[in-house]
Amino acid sequence: MTIPLETPTSVVTAGVAMFAEALQHQGVTAAAVDWHPPAAGTAASVTRVMADPRRVPANAEALQAMLGAQAALVDVLPASEALGLERGQFLHAGPPVSWERASGPLRGALIGAMLFEGLADTAEQAEAALAAGEVAWEPCHHRGAVGPMAGVVSPSMWMFALRDEPNQNTAWCSLNEGLGKVLRYGAYSAEVVDRLRWMTDVLGPLLQRAVRSVGTVDVKAIVAQMVQMGDEGHNRNRAGTLMFLREVLPALIDSGAPTSQVAEAVRFMAGNDHFFLNLVMPACKLQTRAAADRPGSTVVTVMARNGTDFGIQTAGTGDRWFTGPANTPEGLYLGAYGPEDANPDIGDSAITETAGLGGFAMATAPAIVGFVGGSVPDALATTRKMYNITLGENPAYALPILEFRGTPTGIDVAAVVRTGLLPQINTGMAGKVAGTGQVGAGLVTPPLGCFVQAIDALAEEAPELSRPRRSGSAG
Amino acid sequence: MTDSSDSARQVRVRTGSYLDSVTLMQVSRRVASLPGITAALVAMATDLNLDLAREMGFDVPPVSPNDMLLAVDAEHDEALAQAFVEAEAALTAGPPTDVSLAGLPAPRTVRAAARASAATVALISTPGEHAFSDAVDAVDAGLHTMVFSDNVPLEQEVALKEYAARAGLLVMGPDCGTAVIGGVGLGFANVVRPGPVGIVAASGTGAQHLMTLLDGADVGISHCLGVGGRDLSAEVAGRSTLRAMDLLGADPQTEQIVVVSKPPAPEVEQAVRAHAESLGKPVRFGLLGQATATLTDTAHETVEALGHSWVEPEQRTGAVAAARPGGSLLGLFSGGTLCDEAMILASAELGPVLSNIPLDPAWALEDPLRPLAKPCPTMVDLGDDRLTRGRPHPMIDQTIRLERLLRAIDEPATGVLLVDVVLGLGAAADPAGELAEPVRKATAAGIPVLVSVVGTRDDPQGLRRQLDTLHDAGAWVFCSNAAAARQAVRLLRTEEAGR
């Protein structure tokens, strides 16, 4: 196969600007690249990864799998049943972390979970037991689950179970507690634990009954609609929450539960604009998981933070974590809180960006651009920039303001390293001190180091460029 | 509006106002940052925000969630009053100015640029260390790719050419200075007319000169495909040359194919010649290396093979008719192949020619910019990689040559000066104009200056104007580089004979 020569009407140029001008002088369009050198010290790895003959087909398959992934809510059940989580076992957001290195909000959430499970009577007791290693914790991602902010899951907490039938995967996420003083932001006061108890005793079972009676709720379809209604699926989930309620409300009413309980549950869900976040996240997990385990692929399958480290995984490197120190978000603060109160970036919710939502879909959520004093054109520019570091576009999640262009999907490690453009993440901010709760919301990027490590690892897996041999005898 | 205050702390409630939380957080931040303000909260009176206000130490009056809370803690009354003025101003700010939603951010990768355009070709001129990745990106996007960048490692060149071959695409380069695809010039390219000759070139200025010679004889070009100077080496094994020949073989516009190169590795030459037999079109080889196979000779043969008659390229006599006594020949070139060709012709007559790109390793010139101790034929390729680090190529900016020329006039070892001028897209706007002054000075000093001009009548600099400028200054001018070199040797001989 050979592509024939034809007179070009447009030429892509990268490098010397003069050559672009010379083309324009001839009446030919120069599609000029705004070229920047890749991250320092990565040239050799980038070259080897770019030369890997497996890369293009593996990435194409990964992208197809991501676009084909489904996400249906099929059940709501306790983590002990869903994930086989046992007493004394906890899950948390981000890559693995020791108690010594754990951030304030993660410590706070683990303390709260100890209290909630009755493993300690006081915060002090809980802290001592955690520090002594009497209980165990591991990343949600290790069990196919995701958790917002601290992401702490204990056996008695109820989980949404979402299913991707085409790829035969299941993903799980806890139920969203609302804003302010909540466990996921590291708060563990009595009101926090009481709320968790109510969620376990009332909300979880009610939702289980409703979902089982409805059969399945097509979460992917709701996500597709919410991105056309001003939600980017990470910091804004207002339309999604209402549409989810619409799906389950009749079944809740029909459930035979006392009306007071139904009303309480509905009031709780309707009063929390982020309730649907915990359904967007596992839907995104299913999408990115569909791409996983493809040798040669440079697609990012996980971006997650534990409040200390930011970690990523790629399709070409299995379940290896590539970590770097988490950045602290920039944005707006609640009340009297300020930058000095904010903990570094935390939560598995960056799975939304990994799947092309959140910061990547910023163009659809101009209502929240103010988080960094940005403007509506900034929001459009953010999404448009992300197309530079993604493999493709997701037609299922179409952005009306960009002429229904699909969200930028499939972050390519090689493109991130080559351009130095980092994924844009929208996020909440937790207080640095355990027990504080939420202090604000804003924008953050991963540390470049994660991507540099990942490209080095991908390069090691890639075949070496063969040394040229001199053919024949003479020369 | 209701107030509840104690000293410099006050909570106000606005009813009937709603603003989104983001806007209100911005107002809070703006108020809190005023001098003398300890804390400020401007927020809708939701339960969450009421809790926040209480935690901040405010006494909150009974309110509905649809009310707006303005709570300020200040160091003194004056600051407090100012804070509310500021808050009110921020809350009642007029509608924001509409700003254009248009304007795409510039693409950051070749792939992104390709997706946003109808491009079929890419031109990569990024630093050599990164050019491979950018070129692979272009190939992934389905583009024939010219790599202008130099300093690309050999194994990357081989890998890139294999990678592109799997996609059915041509890589021109690395270190490819010129290409013409369907009449569109890429890199340094002369403006030539369309025609029946397709060129495959492992030499940039060699290809440019062949094209300008053909154009001067009214023979046009279908495509000129550069392949990079190393393509016909044993290691690269003609990977791009073979593919370029296939493309020209299949191209309906192309009647004659010419391959221009330094002599290839013998086994590669054999393979390329064998491949030429299979194309079903005449293929001519212009392999530099002998005084009988100049670019001008190749152009001559090609023109006659097409049934046209050959007219010798234009040349004009200069003001000085013999070399300055006691001096030798100094060539200062911007085109490597032009320098090569001149050296081959000169050494056949004069023996060793010192150079930074010597024909024989024994003739190597340590520092090509230093004055010569004793007269000896010398030719410098000022476009050589080692001389272009950190400065523009002399075809773009010939400052380095102008400086060397002016100094050479005062050096007794200089008897004849030979230079090239390469016109075309990408080249300097008026190279002849810049050379005029040194030419006048050399002429006045009794040194003949011979200039070979590589250009066409349609080049932006204008061939005629460039020739006139140089000739008016006293230079000999030639549209054939070989003719210029031969004449330079002749002037040196004339001087020697006259002694």
Description:
- The complex is a heterodimer of chains A (475) and B (499).
- Chain A is α+β, with helices and mostly antiparallel strands.
- Helix content of chain A is 36%, strand content 20%.
- Chain A starts with 9 loop residues before the first strand and ends in a 14-residue tail after the last helix.
- The model of chain A has no long low-confidence stretch (mean pLDDT 94).
- Helix content of chain B is 38%, strand content 20%.
- The longest helix of chain B has 18 residues, at 481-498.
- Chain B is elongated.
- Chains A and B meet through β1, α1, β2, α2 and α13 of A and α1, β3, α2, α4 and β5 of B.
- β1 (10-14) of chain A pairs parallel with β5 of chain B.
Q: What descriptors fit this protein?
A:
A: about 475 residues; five-stranded mixed β-sheet; four-stranded antiparallel β-sheet; 15 helices; B: about 500 residues; alpha/beta; seven-stranded mixed β-sheet
Annotate the secondary structure layout:
The complex is a heterodimer of chains A (475) and B (499).
Chain A: E1 10-14, H1 17-25, E2 29-32, H2 43-51, H3 55-68, E3 72-78, H4 79-83, E4 89-92, H5 104-116, H6 123-131, E5 136-139, E6 145-146, E7 158-164, E8 169-174, H7 190-214, E9 217-218, H8 219-226, H9 238-254, H10 259-270, H11 277-289, E10 300-306, E11 309-314, E12 322-325, E13 330-333, E14 346-347, H12 351-354, H13 376-386, E15 390-399, E16 405-411, H14 413-419, E17 425-430, E18 438-444, H15 448-461
Parallel strand pairs in A: 1-2, 4-5, 6-8
Antiparallel strand pairs in A: 3-7, 3-9, 7-8, 10-11, 10-14, 11-12, 13-18, 15-16, 17-18
Helix pairs in contact in A: 2-15, 3-11, 5-6, 5-7, 7-9, 8-9, 9-10, 14-15
Chain B: E1 2-6, E2 9-14, H1 21-32, E3 37-44, H2 47-55, E4 68-74, H3 77-91, H4 110-115, E5 121-124, H5 128-140, E6 144-147, H6 154-166, E7 171-172, E8 178-181, E9 184-187, E10 194-201, H7 204-216, E11 221-226, H8 239-250, E12 256-261, H9 266-277, E13 283-287, H10 295-305, E14 315-316, E15 328-333, H11 336-350, E16 354-355, E17 378-381, H12 385-388, H13 399-409, E18 414-422, H14 431-444, E19 449-454, H15 463-472, E20 476-478, H16 481-498
Parallel strand pairs in B: 5-6, 6-7, 10-11, 10-12, 12-13, 15-17, 15-18, 16-17, 18-19, 19-20
Antiparallel strand pairs in B: 1-2, 2-4, 3-4, 8-9, 8-11, 14-20
Helix pairs in contact in B: 1-3, 5-6, 7-10, 11-16, 13-14, 14-15
